[in-house]
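Researcher: We're teaching a course module on how sequence relates to structure. For the next exercise, students receive a sequence and then see the predicted structure as C-alpha cells, so they can try to spot secondary structure elements on their own. Here is the exercise chain.
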Amino acid sequence: MKALQHLRTINHHKWLVMKGCFKVGLYRQGLMHDLSKYSPTEFLVGCRYYQGTRSPNNAERESTGYSKAWLHHKGRNRHHYEYWIDYSVNPGEGIVGQKMPTRYVIEMFIDRIAASKTYQGENYKDTHPLAYYEQGAAKLGRMIHPDTAKQLHFLLTMLAEKGEEETFAYIRHKILQKN
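Model: And here is the predicted structure for the students to work with:
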C-alpha cells in the first residue's frame, strides 16, 4: 500500500482546486471539494491502486470490472456530471444528463485543471485539460447535458487559448456575477 503517496496526491489536488475556487469566489466549494476521498471507501482503494500518474479508480476498474471508489465518489460530489444523471421527464428518452448549476460546472472545470496539473506535473500546459476532455467527450452522448457540455468546452477552450489568469477573471466577473 502506498498510503502516504496517495494522501499527498489527494492533498495536492485538493489544494489546487481550493486555490482555483478561491480565485473565482467559490470559497465554500473550495473548502469542501472532494472530502469523500478521505472516507475509507475511497481512501483505501486509492492506497491499494495508487500509481501516481493517473487516478487509482482506473486501476481498480481494470482489476475488478468497476470502481467501487468512483461509484461512491460521483454520488457525493456535485461537481461531477455523473452526479446529475437521472431519468428524463420525457418517458422515451430514458436516462440522461441533467443541466448542472453553473457553480458546479465551474468547480468541475477547476477540478479538471487540478487533475491535469497533479498528473502532468512540470509537463502541464493549459491545453491539457481540453485535450483530455476531447478524448472522452465523444463517448459521453446523453450522459452530460448539452448546455453543461457547451459551457465546460467553452471554458476549457478559453483556458487553452488565453490562459488561466484571464479565464478565471472571466469566470469571476462575467459568469458568476450573473448568478
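Model: If you want an answer key for the exercise: The chain has a mean pLDDT of 95. The CA atoms of residues 36 and 76 lie 7 Å apart.
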